[in-house]
Amino acid sequence: MRPPATSPSGLDARAVGTRYGARMTDLKHVVPARRLGRLERLPARRLALGILSVLILTAVAFGTFRTLDLPPGQRYAAATWRDFVVLGIARGSVYALIALGYTLVYGILKMINFAHGEVFMAGAFGSFFFAQAYEQSGFLDRNVLVALVIVFLVAIAVSTMVAVLLERIAYRPLRNAPRLVPLITAIGASLFLQNTARGFFGPQTRGYPSPKVLTGKWYPFGIPIARTQLLMIIVAAGVMLALQLFISRTKTGKAMRAVSQDPEIASLMGIDTDRIIVTTFAVGGALAGIAAVLFAMTFGQVGPFMGFTPGIKAFTAAVLGGIGSVSGAAIGGLILGVLESVGPPLFLTGFHVPSPLQLQDVIAFSILVLVLIFRPGGILGTGEAEKV
After folding, report:
1. Which helix (H) or strand (E) segment is 225 a member of?
2. Residues near 171 by Cβ (< 8 Å), separated by ≥ 6?
3. Tens of pLDDT, residues 86-123
4. Total Cβ atoms within 10 A of residue 187
5. Which helix (H) or strand (E) holds 269?
6. What is the mean pLDDT of residues 78-89?
7. Do the beta carbons of residue 25 and residue 34 sit within 8 Å?
8. Is 60 helix (H, G, I), strand (E, B) or coil?
């Protein structure tokens, strides 16, 4: 029997011919792709986002024009707009301090600590009892500086302790779990802390005492600003500057940046990642404690659920600025505070919406939705949604 012919490379020629012949036969039956029209080549998502952008900008511009075009007896005075801006900057300073806690933890662990608002609440309650006792004894007004330092230190200690315990008990055992598991755990921890505070301290809100020296207004550069608001702005600015220097100049701060970039490589280089993670939670808790005292003195009350709304708004500020970016959290907090304060009267008064100032939360959460739609990475981020 004659052996089959082979090619110079040693392949069976008949097999090769049969194989390629079958492929050529299959190619004859391939249907050519239909050429897409111009409308079909347009990305549907970009088209929808473009239309939505035009509608939103048109509504905002039209509402602003109608508000500014109101008769003199119905429009806001220039002094009122100035007060709105100052209030927005003060409120945004608190949002920025809380948002820094979100962004520090996210930068290290790539998780959202939704219990951070309750860390803020714990610091407010911890300092409340000292402030109340000092007010009743008169020490709060006799030795204002010493009393405020003690109140701030107590709030920092309580918030830091709660943040570290959260990391050790709730998050560390789940460090290698799927990312949805720590997220659900954070929500559960938030509810646990809220209801624990309600069980110990009751559901009612309590008045937070403030020194008499902080009542009234100061006039820097001729601008009347409430003293508590000015204190809030100055302290928040100083703390954010100190945090930036801590991260960029100190050995621990550089280690935090290294762990944020690559925890495994940082561990191989001799960095104790567990210690750095605990330090990150402690720093975030300390910032929340400072924000808690400033917020409570400015708005004059504490309660077991006081951390929920500021916590969500601080998360919005972190997303707006770019989650994981320290500078972005500060910028996002200030922008959100100003838009939340100025936005409702500026955009809605012209449409004769009743009580537009009651819709500040609507503005804040609308910003969160719009940022997630148009620029998920935030102002200082990449602009692309992260794949989970």
Report:
1. strand 225-226
2. 109, 111, 113, 182, 185, 186
3. 999 999 999 999 999 999 999 888 888 999 999 999 99
4. 13
5. none
6. 90
7. no
8. helix
Integer Cα distance of 104 and 97 in angstroms: 11
CA distance 148 to 156: 12
Distances (CA, A) of 53 to 47, 72, 252: 10, 32, 43
Q: Which domains does the chain have, with CATH numbers?
A: 89-198+228-347+354-370 (1.10.3470)
pLDDT in tens, 172-205: 998 888 888 988 999 999 999 999 999 998 888 9
**Amino acid, single-letter form, for residue 23:** R
Which tokens is 215 given?
């009542």
> CA-CA distance, 195 to 205, in Å (whole number)?
14
Distance between CA atoms of 346 and 353, rounded to whole angstroms?
Answer: 11
Give the number of other CB atoms < 10 A from CB of residue 178: 9
Q: Can you give the pTM of this predicted structure? A: 0.82
Q: What is the pLDDT of residue 22?
A: 47
Over the stretch 305-346, which tens digit does the pLDDT of each residue have? 999 999 999 999 999 988 888 888 899 999 999 999 998 888
Residues 6+ apart with CB under 8 A from 378: 318, 319, 320, 321, 322, 323, 325, 328, 332, 371
> Among all chains, which residue has been given the structure tokens 């009580």?
355
Contact 319, 332 (CB under 8 A): yes
Residue 119 CB-density burial (10 A; 0-12 exposed, 13-18 middle, 19+ buried): buried
The SS3 assignment for 42 reads coil
Other Cβ atoms closer than 10 A to 251: 8
Going through the chain in order, the beta strands assigned E by DSSP cover 206-207, 217-218, 225-226, 301-302
Which CA distances in Å does 357 have to 56, 211, 363? Answer: 20, 28, 10
Backbone angles phi, psi at 21, to 5 degrees: -65, -40
Mind giving me the DSSP string for 71-136? Answer: -TTTSPPHHHHHHHHHHHHHHHHHHHHHHHHHHHHHHHHS---TTHHHHHHHHHHHHHHHHHHHHH
Distances (CA, A) of 378 to 312, 319, 354, 383: 16, 6, 32, 6
